[in-house]
Amino acid sequence: MLYKSNQDLPLDIRTQLSEAYQDLYRVAFNSASHWYGEAAKAHKVAWSAVKMQSAMDRTFPALGLSCQKEASYSIENGIVNP
Which superkingdom heads the taxonomic lineage of this protein's source (predicted)? Predict the structure, then answer.
């Protein structure tokens, strides 16, 4: 199952995460789902990506890589492109 938009994400993901983090979760989930073929593993990968980005946002705010800003991620052939 791939998520085409943030509205397709589970309710708990939509309520816990900002729009930018939802984008990251959705793209990471779709990529991992394509790669591993398992929803449970894709969820773990996507949640890990959100946690790692969140830690980066807190640790290195001056880099301007914050997911709290407008983020744009795309997926092509199963590869996440920021």
Answer: Bacteria
d(C-alpha 43, C-alpha 26), whole Å: 9
Count structural domains, the chain: 1
Residue 20 domain-assigned (yes or no): yes
Closest by Cα among 49, 65, 45 to 57: 65
pLDDT in tens, 23-69: 999 999 999 999 999 999 999 999 999 999 988 887 765 544 445 54
> Which residues touch 35 (CB under 8 Å, ≥6 apart)?
78
Burial (0-12, 13-18, 19+ Cβ within 10 Å), 70: exposed
